[in-house]
Amino acid sequence: MDKMKARVLKSVGNLEYCDYPLPTLKPDEVLFRVKACGICGSDIPRIFVNGTYHFPTIPGHEFSGEVAAVADDKYKDLVGMRATVFPLIPCMKCENCNDGKYEMCRSYDYLGSRSDGGFAEYVRVPVWNLVPIPDNLSFEAAAVTEPCAVALHALRRAQIEIGDTVVIYGPGTIGMLLAQWARAWGAKVLLVGTDVNNWDFVESFGFFDYCNSSHEDPIQWVKDKTNGVGADIAVEAVGVPVTACNCLESVAAGGKVLFVGNPHGDFTFPQNTYWQILRKQLTIFGTWNSSYKDTHKSDWNIVVDAMASGKIDAEKLITHKFDLATMDKGLEIMRDNTEFFAKIMVVNK
């Protein structure tokens, strides 16, 4: 077998389903059989608007599966291992890598954008990037590890504490993962969304304190829910100016504002909103990707343990499943917002 089925981005908007050469392994790499791969929100502009760093490229960076073959005999015991994959491949040379802050590597490779990713039957993966998963964790749930680790990393950056009130603007996939982590931390969770959100879906996770900002002032709602004080942590998980401003307005004095959502364009703050940062002495946190280390406290290992134990329900976030041949429908749902979705999964049988 020297060919595999894959979704190959040959030009912007042209994601071809075709036979493609099997990856050629380098030392310290494995041939990874993809069982499930989530479609990330970032895949939509990557496929339809901006393209990748080169063509052709196989997108897809949220995936799980099992080791099918190894490049080096010293890794032969890994064959058959169930795993998910940290998609960022650090240079291991820059100052950030030397500090173990691989998510901020200055010269990284990335499966699914800079190198071929998981919208395929197989992908080559460095041994270092493999994260073992237990037998009781499904491949579909394990493919949500990457966004789940992003959410965990964000709240760890903001130094969340037991008893905090956390308001999350944007209850999408990342927002709902943030909400689950905040609840697991012992925080009170408030959710703010719009008419595009499915509030029955939100309630199915046990969250009932939410505001539909299409019909209600979210800033006043947060203040009403906090006795006029405001939230201890406000999380921007949408990437638009209005929610960023609402975070600054609805957080308590001395509070924290956490920016998670990728920006959809330039941001401009009204002067009175900017004053909130100064007068309330707010702390602003940025977050990027997730931490990855070979310790039990790594974001990725914590996520796998939390999903396997049922503390975090990732599988419930999966609203649609397609295979490689039919995944165009999933991409169209996300691009055109034609129906409600949370996480759309591509599954290889």
Topology:
Layout (H helix, E strand, L loop, with lengths): L2 E9 L2 E8 L7 E11 L3 H8 L11 E9 L11 E4 L2 E2 L5 H4 L10 E2 L11 E5 L3 E3 L6 H4 L2 H13 L7 E5 L3 H12 L3 E6 L5 H6 L5 E3 L5 H8 L5 E6 L4 H10 E9 L11 H9 L3 E4 L12 H11 L8 E5 L5 H9 L6 E5 L2
Parallel strand pairs: 10-11, 10-13, 11-12, 13-14, 14-15, 16-17
Antiparallel strand pairs: 1-2, 3-4, 3-8, 3-17, 4-5, 5-9, 6-7
Helix pairs in contact: 4-5, 4-10, 7-8
What is the count of β-strands?
A: 17
CATH class value of the largest domain: Alpha Beta
Shape: globular
CATH topology heading of the largest domain:
Quinone Oxidoreductase, Chain A, domain 1
Number of continuous helical runs: 11
Average per-residue pLDDT, rounded, comes to 97
What is the rounded Rg?
A: 20 Å
Unreliable stretches (pLDDT < 50, length at least 5) are none
Q: Which percent range describes the beta-strand content?
A: 25-35%
CATH architecture of the largest domain: Alpha-Beta Complex
Largest sheet: 7 strands, mixed
